[in-house]
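Suppose a classmate hands you a notebook page containing two proteins, each written out with its sequence and a corresponding row of structure tokens. How would you begin to make sense of it? This section walks through that situation. The first entry is reproduced here exactly as it would appear on such a page.
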Amino acid sequence: MKASRDWVCIRLLTYENESEYKYMERLLGVTDGTLPNTVFCLLSPDGKTKLTRPTRGPSIFRTPENMAIQMKRMASRYQTVVPDSFVAPVPLVDRVDLTMNVAASDNRPMVVFYHPSPPDLQILVESARPVVWDSRLTGQFMYAATSSKEDLKAMVNASGKAGVYIVEPDEYGVSGKIVRHLAPDNVKESLKRELSQALANFQPFQKNHQQHIRDGYLFGIEWETLIPESDPMSVQAKQRFKARFDSRP
């Protein structure tokens, strides 16, 4: 985590964004329509020059310690032009339902910014930037922003009032429990304290991979991606598991 501070770390949406899907296909150099569900590569500041060979994951570094050392070494080649006062934008996921799904998959709480007025929503999100990038909170939450009240339906007992909702997703990211709601005029004063408290109270689900999949099929829960999954190994594994599930007594 410390080594990553010198890098711009981007989590692409794989099967939820067509342009990102095509970009990763070119990066990995795979046949059209066969993109695996994970891609890893370190790039220079121009966003084009590959500093490592594109792979499915960072296993090329062998150990986390070696990865941190190599990342520090590569970052030292470049002179930063970003002033110390710069605060990065809030790392928003495209949609609230997708944010909840990702948060559940990562076993993390999420934050939803809501305001029916898009300009006011932007002001609300901007006011949270310094808190979101606090060293003790960075990477601990998934974030979404919306001006549509419909997007709040999956959040149990959502009031529909403008502000910031801190939410704990359920095990499958189908719904979420609201931990706290902050009014827009209370964000600057209270957001850091409330996020810290929510993180301290958060209890991640203890998931068994096979049981989690079985229960998902039992409950009729299956996430449909915007772009059909194209990872051959993953698709085949799901087909085998579903066939066993469907043929059970």
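The notebook's second entry, a different protein, reads as follows.
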Amino acid sequence: MSTVFIQHHPASPPGSTLDVLRSHGHSIRIIKTHEGDEIPDSLDGIDAIISCGGPQSVCSPDAAMEREYELLRLAHRAEVPILGLCLGAQMLAHALGGEVGKLESGPEVGFHEVALTPAGREDPLFKGIPWWTRQFEWHEDGVLTAPPDARVLASSKNAPIQAFSVGISTYGIQYHPEYTRDLVVEHWNRPDPLTEAGGGIEELARQTDLHFDEFHRHGMRFFESVALFLMPVDRLSEGSMREPVEH
């Protein structure tokens, strides 16, 4: 049994999430759809799912995305823990009946202030996280309408749905708490039209110097809560510690 990461692009790997879950004894399987790995059509061997970011758009789905929607719906119905990150959150929202589209105010790029809602302040995954934080964003699409029965857990000025949950074990996070400094720097150094939307390389470098250390500390705290409350090994494998195996 494994915690499955679905990676959609080389520039959006699991990041810090992988390190934290491994330290808590998770067996890891990484499905790289950008390299042609197939999305499973069942939950056999799957303890939990983390859907990563990527440049794809829910507004222009491909065959792999359609298969992932089916897997996410299947996992949600079975109460298998799910965490969607950026594109993964948008795909999760779409799969469960929410609306995803272009943000009216334009792309969110760089470090933006994100505020927890009253529901978010009480959610165990945000235990120890300040009510207002600076989070790294890199997206022009967003969740415009949350899925039915979802709880909105965080918002920002330009994207009112920055985090949401549905049921007891399904979560979507629009920003990138998983990013290491290297991933942040790689984003604003590679050719990407969104770089200019964030003020250009010099501005993004300034923001990174100013905000990264605190952002990373909050991200590690968040993933500790994911490991303890959303995807605990004692829940998934009756407390046995397992050697991580990456595929």
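A careful reader of the second entry would note: The chain has eight helices and eleven strands.
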